[in-house]
């Protein structure tokens, strides 16, 4: 199948354009992901949250980020409180606790998401050391919460300029140590690779359509650096990842 004829069919039978029909030179901030629609099919959404555990394990690169960016930021005691903002189905929060245990650390991870549907999905699978709450970053700031490390995965590309500024400012207030937000790095290679591989895991979900839309909405490293406030650094990571990092 060549680039010109690629098409993407989601759970609601919508199609995405092929690679040659997509302009990836700039962010497409007008695109809306299907799962962001409050009226989307709840059964498909629930399957999508469940499938994220597989997708993120394959493409998010968080196992490496844990070692290179989270572990060095943990307190010397090896015990830490970590916040996962926009936790979705909770797979990253559960993974962080599992990796910490394997590496001799003790984490309490709190996963929060303002979307009740996400928290419902996250709470279906419980893990020792992980709690999930329906809340926003602003709610936690107002409550006076503090965490050693604040992380997120695939949140930044969803936010407009004002929402992103508020999200990052809240992250600064919540983190006593490091804030670390990971997202997709937009490129033709990322779009092509995801379009070819995602059918293997996307049946009956929004995973394929929304994944490609996420790439089109996402940042390059220079774009993210320009969008970040003073004190933040944009870093390139593999595979096809960009990190926003700030140390308190």
UniProtKB/TrEMBL annotation:
Entry-linked InterPro entries: Methyltransf_25 (IPR041698), SAM-dependent_MTases_sf (IPR029063)
Keywords attached to this entry: Methyltransferase, S-adenosyl-L-methionine, Transferase
GO molecular function, one term: methyltransferase activity
Top-level taxonomic group: Bacteria
Record keyword Aminoacyl-tRNA synthetase present: no
BP term (GO), one: methylation
CDD domains attached to this UniProt entry: AdoMet_MTases
Keyword Methyltransferase attached: yes
Methyltransferase domain location: 82-173
Protein name (record): Methyltransferase domain-containing protein
Organism: Curtobacterium subtropicum
